[in-house]
Input
Amino acid sequence: MKIGFIGLGTMGSRLAARLQETGHELVVHDIRRSTAEPLLARGAQWAGSPCILGKASEVVFTSLPGPLEVEAVALGAEGLLSGMAAETVYIDLSTNAPTTVRRIHAVLADRQIHMLDAPLSGGPRGAASGNLAIWVGGEEEIFDRYRNLLHALGDRVRYVGGIGAGSIAKLVHNGAGYCMLAGITEMFTVGVKAGVDPLALWEAIRDGNIGRRRSFDGLIDQILPGKYQPAAFALRLAHKDTTLAAELGRDVGVPLRMVNLALAELTEALNHGWGDLDSRAMTLLQQERAGLNIEVDPKRIARAVEAESVRTT
Output
């Protein structure tokens, strides 16, 4: 397959190399030609613009810094739109805004050019090794057609939904991740300042329930099915524990913005009379603010958990 690849930075250079290693013909472009030299030395062709690259490719990948760069490459002067033929495919691997993805998709669709948004998770090391999650949005038929090509880049390729769904999954993942990091960092600094060796503290907390579970497994039992009784751990006890954590922070003089926010949520939930519900009932407050009610059929959840178990064994 003749594949075009635009954006040969830290991630893109490694991804393009993996495609080249699978035996595909590669046409490449970047604002700095020097980044393409290793690929050119192994037989890739250079294209002087996205338009030229688009004309020479059956499938085009982009790995770019953000929405502005993606839109310029796709729709700008000498962009992909002016070069790609009908029934070719554009796959954007960038972390992008869903609104930008959908706007580009609509313009390309008028020319019968297909588009998938397929952001990645795994960093440069994962890009080099192929240990990447790839979240894909777009037409499912097009995803199925190019699933194996995406598997050349990552070991966990998942169709999420219509165009933009891949980007939404990536933003939810990263946004939640940095919220977790902020909270973990707060309490970790409290523990260290309270006198525990940092490495010993890290080793200790990894053995706890949260440390043993995957980050998002906490959604399975209560939040996804919308079931908060019987409580696995009562909200009133979570409120007590978080109060004690906040007090420890005050005792050692460490500001706790994230912990105090969590305590405020737990307090509001407690004032709703939810003390004997599962501690995750505090999430009902945010669901209410968002104007939605999360409640997934338990049979669907069970199938998803079983499929994930099979995939990881």
User: Anything to note?
Assistant: The domain at 2-163 is CATH 3.40.50.720 (Rossmann fold).
